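re: ur msg from earlier - yeah i can do the DLL complex, just paste it... oh wait u already did. ok heres what im feeding in:
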Amino acid sequence: MAIWNEKAENMDRDELRALQLEKLKKTVRTAYDHVALYRHKMDEAGVTPEDIGSLDDISKIPFTTKQDLREHYPFGLAAVPMRDIVRIHASSGTTGKPITACYTKKDLEMWAECIARVATAGGATADDIAQISFGYTLFTGAFGLHYGLEKIGCAIIPISSGNTERQLNIMKDFGTTVLIATPSYAMYMAEVAEKMGVMKDIHMKCGIFGAEASTEELRQELQRRWGCVVTENYGLTELLGPGVAGECMCRKGMHINEDYFYAEIIDPITGKVLPDGETGELVLTSLEREGQPSLRYRTRDITHIITEPCECGRTSHRIAKITGRSDDMLIIRGVNVFPSQIESVLLTMEGIGPNYEIVVTRHNYTDYLEVKVELIDAAMLDRFSDLENLQKKIVTALRTVVGIDIKVSLVSPSTLKRFEGKAKRVTDLR
Ligand code: DLL
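and the outut:
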């Protein structure tokens, strides 16, 4: 299993911690001196950059939130003059103002390095033809992956997202071996490929997917349909974009680029730092961003840190699959429900497809969940008892895992919405 940067990725952990501390001190100093938000927050908490004498001292620094970033939209968190910024990205910002990210030339080099590591871990090499099916827009996904894959030496097809039939014809004609997409779009592409009958002419080596939560069950389904290894990677605009962490071929958690990012897990309610291995909210600090450093950014993503050595030989800690975002969690009649729990049940059931929609409603002050899921065989709609049996089976399986009764509606094949970027599975009508 190839490693892009052995020196960095196999670094002795004591050496790594010393490097992290050195970089943390510098980052805190820069953030304090050049970004008003960080200076005000630290002054208010009575902390100075000199108070950072060990990695544990990071807990003295106040958290940064998405709200802070919104309030300083667009460039209030830039730590360098605008003439040193060479790229600007932004998150989709479906609610409220978008989040912006400013990069210097050095940041872009560091980004390409992070992606080269993650993509190599996921199986990409200079011999590959890599199709980037993320949108080339303000979204960090396409441009982020692009320069890292180019650094590796892949032949890149910058096709962007959408126009699925064309995507598949290109895969067939150009001999794409690596696909870059969201897991939900990769699933949709697989469905269309099967319908077009082109799957036999596509010879994928690996799918390097990310940008949204997905379950282990969805990975298995994607691997089965594409006939290749599927790894996932993680990142966010606020910190960099993709490249914060990514899986290796062992597929047992995403290796964090720890020389560039310091990860903590906190209790999302109390803000207390939790020991390694406990599940909570991921908090990230950038260790080498020039354009826009981040101090203790609350990602809202729920995961845990895996410290056991990985069989691949990398010494970095890993983050486990994101089980959801703390703000995605649904509280239904007092029970916490993550959409990922529902997905993991649905994907193990026979007779239904991998697409689903969760609808939340409220009647007489009580919340209800409905899951719409597609039948594989439309003819089943005419066989009432089969339909009823399948429905009952899904309701029971969901009750066992989620702990509440969820209404299940079985709909005709190919009738639910498909997504070319990040899937939106939950419709909250409350
Ligand atoms: O989604 C960056 C990215 C692009 C990552 C391409 C990987 C591949 P944003 O649009 O700012 O950035 O969204 C960041 O997406 O806080 C998570 O909630 C979610 N997310 C990203 N990767 C994963 C993943 C990009 N592998 C937000 N699993 C993050 C679960 C993910 N959630």
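cool cool. Residues 91, 139-141, 210-213, 232-237, 241-242, 299, 301, 322, 325 surround DLL (CB under 6 Å). ping me if u need the other ligands too
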